[in-house]
Amino acid sequence: MLAAMAALEEAYARRGAPPSAAAGRAGDRTPVVGYVGADMPVELLTAAGVRAFRLTGDPASDSALGDRYLGRGVDPMARSVLARLLAGSFGELDRVVVSHDCEASLRLFYALRELGRVEPGMRPPEVYLVDILHLPHRTTARYNRRRIGEFAARLEAWTGRPLDLAGAVAAHDERRRLLAAVAELRRAVPARLTGRQFLAVANAALPVDEHIALLERLLAEAGRLGEHTGRRVFLSGSDHDTPHVYEAIESEGHVIVGEDHSFGDLLLREPVGAGGLDALAEHYHHGGPTAHRATASERAAHAATAVRRCRAELFVAYSRAGDEAPAWDFPAQRAAIDIPAVSLERQEYGRADLAALAVPRKEDPCAV
């Protein structure tokens, strides 16, 4: 394995583990912040100088505490995150910041807030909500700008220092640019990265400057990457905060060359650019077309464009039990694309019904 890819895989394996909370010159401890949700303005976390990482679930761990406080009707990914938080799996967190990207994230926020109020013995971290909305209205844009400003002020109060917003935005925009270049390696024919490898590259648990350095090394070594010639799959639907489903699908000889969830291609959004908090609010107002915040027609149009771009041969719409929203979009998506499509509904967290993927290729005269 290439040195850069090995380092990124190692950092991906550490996802969900808190970075060390180093002390400053005067002995001040740098706050450690865990965050949840696709709408998190990570640029502000970087600008504040906190040690931040995205909280993830674990399909193999006990989710009883999450089931108890959220109920089994909520997306099991959120239930797993809550269970791991309450069990101390993320170490000593100073705060948890939750974005309102879907109903499950909002329910997680309410549960943590109420547990801090009525169960002080459990001592969950202080929780804060970043409530970004996505309606196409000027009033929504103004609402989002206020929420972004409030979060920036709260971070300055937490850390006691001003934000370096310009530097943070520039760094995250550069990371997006490099990730987009890496994504082209996966879209190549044959693919130079698997979907599982791209998950590791995109979600490596690293400070943004270290991530940038490794992405540059990976691109410099790209000529030595292998080739992957399995059936090219576009994966739509639920988020994947672990590699389990990717590994299962690719173990059957497929290669995932694109997706539309927030741990994958939707990280490759347009740059924020200049403009400070106004530009940042605009950026997150117009977030990617996830199943929880876009219309069926928007999702179908995105699917048609993405499938052509990555030259996929099979469209797989995946939705977990407790996260049914992606399944509602499948009829419109299937009508908009010109390749075979299958829907995997009510799947267990971290699992996929592989038998459903055995559909004929379009060029097969028996295809339907």
Automatic annotation (TrEMBL):
InterPro entries linked: FldB/FldC_alpha/beta
Domain of life: Bacteria
Signal peptide: none
Record-stated family: Belongs to the FldB/FldC dehydratase alpha/beta subunit family.
Protein name (record): 2-hydroxyacyl-CoA dehydratase
Organism field: Sphaerisporangium dianthi
